[in-house]
UniProtKB/TrEMBL annotation:
Name used for this protein in its record: Fucose-1-phosphate guanylyltransferase
UniProt keywords, alphabetically: Nucleotide-binding, Nucleotidyltransferase, Transferase
Example GO molecular function: nucleotidyltransferase activity
SUPFAM superfamilies per the UniProt record, alphabetical: Trimeric LpxA-like enzymes
Residues in GDP-fucose pyrophosphorylase domain copies: 101-532
GO biological process, one term: GDP-L-fucose biosynthetic process
Superkingdom assignment: Eukaryota
Listed transmembrane segments: none
Classification via InterPro entries: Fucose-1-phosphate_GuaTrfase, GDP_fucose_pyrophosphorylase, Trimer_LpxA-like_sf
Nucleotidyltransferase keyword on record: yes
The encoding gene: FPGT
Length: 599
């Protein structure tokens, strides 16, 4: 099994490096017709996020980090109720129609959903999940460049239509040298990856039509009988979604976000991205125009794909177990989508040599960037990526990960931690399993193990300020209570939140929380000081963190306090980009000097 896994790793590494090389050749150059996407569109949750994305796209184009001659757009969700990635898809279709009229019926379009606030990975909250930095490349790759690179072969083998993907996942695959993934059938076409049944419970699972296995293939085109959204293991068996070892070796079954499966293991095919042809997209657009305003969250996977295939039934429209917020009109809208799409085919591209990685939580982020030897090897991730840090990382097992940062040689970063876009001085000690983002620490400082520390630039009343969110990497920022008397149920760095407020000398009042006063959480708790300098901001937030850990008083009364929710409202994207650019230029200059001295 180990040998088979190693062979798969080599195949994925070679296929991935070829795609990265091809994308590298297109960066900063005008692309020929049909060579690349006609349109790349990113969704945003609100106007602040839309502006942040547009600023970053503009910077990338100016620095020639993206292919040129492509239309890059940011499509913002309408103000009001959350509409989910399904609603965002419908909204994007309307934007395309407004911008291009009938012209877009001949375009290949990549639509990337990046409209969330990334509460489970808050270092991506301010600038967006699609702009999450990855530990490789010069300049550093972000998720956007990786997506464009991994899909580099798609546009030239695709009929006009839209490829829909999410900002926080990575699909790696290998197919035969002369083979390409084709998106040329009517209806929907989705990629499918072999996964354990446990992984299937958190993904979409395909129930495939029977197929005569004449030989094992890396790439198979199959028809889907029905699509199950986050099914139980019992449901997978009941609907015949489970595959059992057959005539071919399951060397392809290792990993991604799963543990390697044994040879005799059962498995299922899970989803990642999907394509819809232009005719289907127009049908969905007509539906959206007819309903006018959407007031509930629609899931592009659960609500579109479950309506497809000959085995689809209407029952799922009434199942709200996987819904974050149940709105009155959700069932009605789901049923209308079901009847609209019923009879539409769901074609499946089975990628037997593929892996799917999700990087949407602090736990996944730390694991994949520091401990996961498979992804490191397949994608060429580095322990020190475009940074100044003289300490040599350990060669095997857990390491730290440094991304576009300047660290003094006297600074120490423990294993399992990630530092990005930061400056750390000689007397800074970062504990294990920490995330440090956008920080500047000049004075002596200790970051306790399992700390999350992320600084944002803010524009408040015309003045530049800084605030640093600090908590535990395992803290649940989404967990909320309805009343002030229940805030004792919240936890900050593993400690009762009420105890923390006592340590910080803060009173429990409604003013302690921003936004919705019946949804109280760490996300909207006003506990983070706004300071005049970046280094003061980090130092102050570390003092409040250490006070909780040491159970020693540290009063926050004298500070202007903000919630993370408010930080995102006040964020100064331009200053954050400038800070990153300053680090970039300093590293570039340092490398040039080093090269001169070496020669």
């Amino acid at each position: 099994m180990a040998a088979a896994n190693a062979l798969l790793g080599v195949a994925l590494r070679e296929a991935t490096q070829r795609k990265l090389q091809r994308f590298s050749e297109l960066r900063g150059k005008p692309v020929a017709a049909g060579e690349f996407w006609d349109i790349v569109a990113i969704t945003a949750a609100d106007e602040k996020q839309e502006l942040a994305y547009k600023q970053q796209l503009s910077e990338k184009l100016k620095k020639k980090e993206l292919p040129l001659g492509v239309q890059y757009h940011v499509f913002v969700d309408p103000a009001g109720a959350k509409i989910g990635n399904g609603g965002s898809t419908l909204c994007a279709l309307r934007c395309l129609e407004k911008l291009y009229g009938d012209k877009w019926n001949s375009f290949t379009i990549l639509l990337i959903h990046s409209g969330g606030y990334s509460q489970r990975l808050p270092n991506a909250s301010a600038l967006g999940k699609i702009f999450t930095a990855l530990p490789f490349g010069n300049p550093i790759y972000q998720m956007l460049e990786l997506k464009l690179a991994m899909y580099i072969d798609f546009p030239s083998h695709m009929k006009p239509g839209i490829l829909v993907t999410c900002a926080d996942d990575i699909e790696l695959y290998s197919v035969g040298e002369c083979e390409f993934i084709r998106f040329d059938k009517p209806g929907f076409t989705a990629l499918a990856h072999p996964s354990s049944l446990t992984v299937g419970t958190t993904h979409g699972v395909f129930v495939l039509e029977p197929f005569n296995y004449l030989e094992y293939k890396d790439l198979e085109y199959r028809c889907c009988h029905r699509f199950l959204h986050k099914p139980s293991i019992e449901q997978m068996h009941h609907f015949n979604a489970v595959c059992r070892p057959g005539n071919f070796s399951h060397q392809d079954m290792a990993g991604g976000d799963t543990t390697p499966l044994k040879l005799e293991s059962e498995y299922v095919y899970t989803d990642s991205l999907f394509y819809m042809d232009h005719k289907t997209a127009k049908k969905l657009l007509a539906f959206y125009e007819k309903i006018g305003t959407l007031n509930c969250e629609i899931d592009a996977y659960g609500d579109f794909l479950q309506a497809l295939g000959p085995g689809a039934t209407v029952e799922y429209t009434r199942n709200t177990s996987n819904v974050t917020k149940e709105e009155a009109e959700l069932t009605d809208i789901r049923q209308r989508i079901f009847h609209l799409l019923k009879g539409t085919s769901l074609n499946v591209v089975v990628l037997n040599k593929s892996k799917f990685y999700h990087i949407g939580t602090t736990e996944e982020y730390l694991f994949h960037f520091t401990s996961d030897s498979s992804l490191k090897s397949e994608l060429g991730l580095q322990s020190i990526a475009f940074s100044i840090f003289s300490t040599t990382p350990k060669c095997s097992g857990n390491t730290s990960c440094i991304i576009q940062s300047i660290l003094d040689s006297g600074c120490s970063v423990a294993t399992g931690s990630v530092v990005e876009y930061s400056r750390l001085g000689p007397n800074v000690s970062v504990g294990e399993n920490c995330i440090v983002s956008g920080c500047s620490v000049i004075t002596e400082a200790v970051l306790p193990a399992d700390s999350f520390v992320c600084s944002l630039s803010l524009k408040m009343n015309g003045y530049l300020k800084y605030s640093t969110m600090a908590f535990g990497v395992q803290d649940n920022l989404k967990r909320n209570v309805k009343t002030l008397s229940d805030i004792k149920l919240l936890q900050f760095f593993g400690v009762c939140f009420l105890s923390c407020l006592n340590i910080w000398n803060l009173k429990v009042t409604e003013e302690l929380f921003s936004g919705n006063k019946t949804c109280l959480s760490l996300w909207n708790a006003r506990i983070f000081p706004a300071c005049s300098s970046l280094s003061d901001s980090v130092t102050t937030s570390l003092k409040m963190l250490n006070a909780v850990q040491n159970k020693s008083a540290f009063s926050l009364n004298k500070y202007k306090l903000l919630s993370i929710e408010e930080m995102l409202i006040y964020k100064d994207v331009e200053d954050m980009i400038t800070y990153r650019e300053q680090i970039f230029l300093e590293i570039t200059l340092n490398r040039k000097q080093f090269d001169l001295e070496a020669s």
